[in-house]
């Protein structure tokens, strides 16, 4: 397969309006698979930190390769951009903008995408993906809107106490399927809230999820809290929900 075909990707940018966000707009980038047709329905992956997933995670290039070279069913990717200065406020459950961001995502973004692109609208056909606090807000969205989302990709999720509190307040999470990974060298990572052991955070989240019936694919690997680690994990993460040989969630 020629490199030209792999790198000839279709990525469309949009600015969509919002009643919930103070700035009233949010930028998106949408990857359309090779052979895209408006009359075909596609699974869809929604990525927090959209710019980073596309630029550093190379998720569109990786999806293109998986579809062309490995014969995966085509799927659409929606990357939702974020202002890094407001990221913690939007993504962390105790952030000032969190409630409005979750409402924007679930009540404005998803309907907009589904009215403009032929994506499937069943929760089993939607995947939420996030790194660090992006994993946190993805879980928060799925907990608050279970009829929309029950599939999550979590790359080194920042599961601080406020996220664990969300989990412990839930009675049953049997509908959730979560693909989780964390790097073993993330045991003393400095964040804007202090230094955290992300391995411990993810182990706690794993325990609380499983205690409430969620099914997981969980791994701890050599890796740091950066895109050099996460980029390599994206094919397996996507494959858990979209690939022809999905792993067993336990």
Automatic annotation (TrEMBL):
Keyword terms of this UniProt record: Hydrolase
Cross-referenced InterPro entries, in alphabetical order? AB_hydrolase_fold, Esterase-like, Mycobacterial_A85_antigen
Q: Does the keyword Cell inner membrane apply?
A: no
GO MF annotation terms: hydrolase activity
Q: What SUPFAM superfamilies does this protein's entry cite? A: alpha/beta-Hydrolases
One of the Pfam families matching this protein, by short name: Esterase
PANTHER family tied to this protein: ENTEROCHELIN ESTERASE-RELATED (PTHR48098), IRON(III) ENTEROBACTIN ESTERASE (PTHR48098:SF3)
Q: What is this protein called?
A: Alpha/beta hydrolase
